[in-house]
């Protein structure tokens, strides 16, 4: 077992290292599931096999010592070597390293697996596509049950939950590359006709309210951008526009239901198909979103972003957001 366990642990470390250095495309959900499964098997084996075996060995040691004392007593010998049976018993009962690193870690890994898979999952914002709502380096929590519970790894929905609403900030699996997670704002729900023309958003023929705010200074780009407050339904949030960028969508790819979209020099108009969502970043001219790669199917949904739990460069960022 020690050799087998060493090989299993080496495989996990090797996979993590290959992922870190970019040799393979990592899947943390799968890695955590396998770690939970493997350590769980060791935990069961520890409770049913290995621990009872060590206890029997400890009991045998104590019985042998007692039998030896009784045998010596029949010969009139009452003074025997003072052996610390307690220390010897503890040594026999102690978990070996290969169980300490598997069965011993199972409760912690199980808690992390359940929390991450069904309650809340942490994410780090890697890009500026959601500025000014979310900044690069924000650490956020994503609610995994609002839109319905899903089985880890395969992402199959097992409870219905609430349907995503316009204005929600949602994490989802990037349709062209499902192993990668994206975060954008829900702009269109199934059945909506979404138009983004001349940098103005229209839903089902009604222009979305857009109120000018003071310019936003992007510290990374060292530039000012036009800032507006937009209202989708009862949700109000800020967006940015870059006046130096054209309104038309350049470089849109081929994607499922592309026939639902019409592109022009003014922008794009799309009819959202059933079971899909139209997503856009709040940094409207610096966001690779549904305008370019299409609709997000319901099966790709990961959860609803609800809270910034840490930003090590700016603690004032911590808290809920719109």
TrEMBL record:
It is an enzyme of class 3 (hydrolase). The chain crosses the membrane at residues 28-45, 98-119. It is found in: Membrane. Its main location: membrane. PANTHER family: CHLOROPLAST PROCESSING PEPTIDASE, SIGNAL PEPTIDASE I. Belongs to the peptidase S26 family. This is Signal peptidase I.
């Amino acid at each position: 077992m020690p050799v087998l366990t060493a090989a299993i642990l080496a495989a996990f470390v090797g996979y993590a290292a290959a992922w870190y250095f970019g040799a393979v495309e990592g899947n943390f959900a799968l890695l955590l599931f396998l770690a939970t499964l493997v350590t769980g098997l060791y935990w069961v084996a520890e409770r049913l096999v290995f621990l009872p075996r060590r206890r029997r060995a400890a009991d045998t040691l104590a019985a042998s010592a007692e039998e030896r004392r009784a045998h010596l007593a029949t010969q009139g010998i009452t003074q025997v070597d003072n052996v610390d049976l307690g220390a010897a018993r503890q040594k026999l009962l102690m978990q070996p390293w290969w169980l300490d690193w598997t069965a011993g870690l199972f409760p912690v890994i199980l808690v992390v697996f359940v929390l991450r898979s069904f309650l809340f999952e942490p994410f780090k914002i890697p890009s500026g596509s959601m500025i000014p709502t979310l900044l690069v380096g924000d650490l956020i929590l994503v609610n995994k049950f609002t839109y319905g519970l899903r089985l880890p790894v395969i992402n199959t929905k097992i409870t219905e939950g609430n349907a995503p609403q316009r204005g929600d900030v949602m994490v989802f699996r990037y349709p062209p590359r499902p192993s990668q997670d994206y975060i954008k704002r829900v702009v269109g729900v199934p059945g909506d006709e979404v138009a983004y023309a001349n940098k103005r958003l229209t839903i089902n023929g009604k222009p979305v309210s857009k109120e000018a705010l003071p310019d936003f200074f992007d510290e990374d780009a060292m530039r000012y951008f036009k800032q507006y407050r937009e209202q989708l339904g009862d949700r109000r949030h800020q967006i940015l526009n870059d006046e130096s960028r054209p309104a038309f969508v350049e470089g849109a790819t081929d994607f499922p239901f592309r026939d639902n979209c019409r592109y022009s020099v003014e922008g794009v108009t799309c009819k959202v198909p059933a079971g899909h969502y139209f997503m856009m970043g709040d940094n409207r001219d610096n966001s690779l979103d549904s305008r370019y790669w299409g609709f997000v199917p319901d099966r790709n949904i990961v959860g609803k972003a609800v809270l910034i739990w840490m930003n090590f460069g700016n603690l004032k960022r911590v808290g809920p957001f719109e």
